[in-house]
Amino acid sequence: MTEVCIIGAGIHRFGRTDGVSGLQQGVFAVRQALADAGVDWRDIGIAFGGSSAAGNADIMVSELGLTGVPFINVANGCATGGSALYGAFTAIKSGEAELALAVGFDKHPRGSFDPKPSDWGLPDWYGEVGLMLTTQFFALKLRRYMEVHGISARTLGLVAEKAFENGARAEHSWRKTPTDLETILNAPMVNDPLTKFMFCSPAEGGVALVLASAKKARELGATGVRLLTATVRTRPPGSFEVFSPSLDLERGPSPTQIASAAAFESAGVGPGDIDVAQLQDTESGAEIMHMAENGFCADGAQEAWLHEGRTKIGGALPVNTDGGCLACGEPIGASGLRQVYENVIQLRGAAGARQVAGARTAYSHVYGAPGLSAVTILQR
């Protein structure tokens, strides 16, 4: 099968950009990625893109050029970007195209996400009791995890403190002000045990990546980062996921666990080979749970990892080096691709003040409702 590289990366800064539509932010990122790759829009053989609240991605051809390119719209919750990348990866891997584009963008209104039960195959009562409020679901799931595995509220605060510290070093982040642990812990409670600084916010932004076969990359003289694998998996029986109306007595693995295992097997590497990781951190507890679900530590070991600074830049496994969702916010269509963009920058050695020294292998994981995960592994 064909080896795949990422040869171009572009990003429109995250946060709030008044007067610029989500689509325009996506187009900005595409043009930046094309320029970075040294190719033209007419060279792209296939494109995959998605947005949750800012329109269909394929309409950006009106801005980029009417080339007749196959352009597939992707919608997979917060894993939309990761799923778009999976499409582009498989297209090159199969020989369908030599150059492919993955793009995601969004522009969410201010305020919390407002999902409707019927859109997720759920009865009205699920919303009436408050479980469509994702902050409540995350808090309930996290509280159970903390009790079972001995995770303290202080550890949740350390995740957020690290996020804002890293975000202050990232050009594309939204939150650029470091926030100390005591301020985070003593902030207004949103859903126990999560304070307001422990949640990400709906946001705006766009990311695009240009993928190429290794053969095409050599022809172009491009210095690419190898995309060893991309996987997407949905929830198996017994998993406990967002918008779950019940919890099975017989527990099963999570979609993250099976996506991660498939990715490591496909790439021929293991958790110990990863130098830098971007993990879904919709809230502080998500990063903690995903550390274990992705195979980087045992359940409960996160307490020691965070208190010893192992996930900080300079630690054993830096996690969310650009501040993750907590510092960047979450434009749903772009979020999963932002993680991969950050890893590309890290492997190029171009991350500046947040650079992980000697990084050679990078991992990203994004999770989306109602229970699916996408994982990628890059190597230079």
Account of the 3D structure:
By secondary structure, the protein is of the alpha/beta class. The protein has one domain: Thiolase/Chalcone synthase (Peroxisomal Thiolase, Chain A, domain 1, 3-Layer(aba) Sandwich). 35% of the residues lie in helices and 19% in strands. The protein contains 13 helices and eleven strands. The protein has helices at 22-37, 61-64, 80-93, 124-128, 134-149, 153-167, 181-185, 214-220, 255-267, 284-293, 302-307, 324-328, 332-348; strands spanning 4-15, 46-50, 71-73, 99-107, 189-191, 194-195, 204-213, 225-234, 276-279, 361-368, 372-379. The strands form two sheets. Strands 3-2-4-7-1-8-11-10-9 form a nine-stranded mixed sheet. Strands 5-6 form a two-stranded antiparallel sheet. Strand 5 and strand 6 form a beta hairpin. Helix 6 (153-167) packs across helix 10. The longest helix has 17 residues, at 332-348.
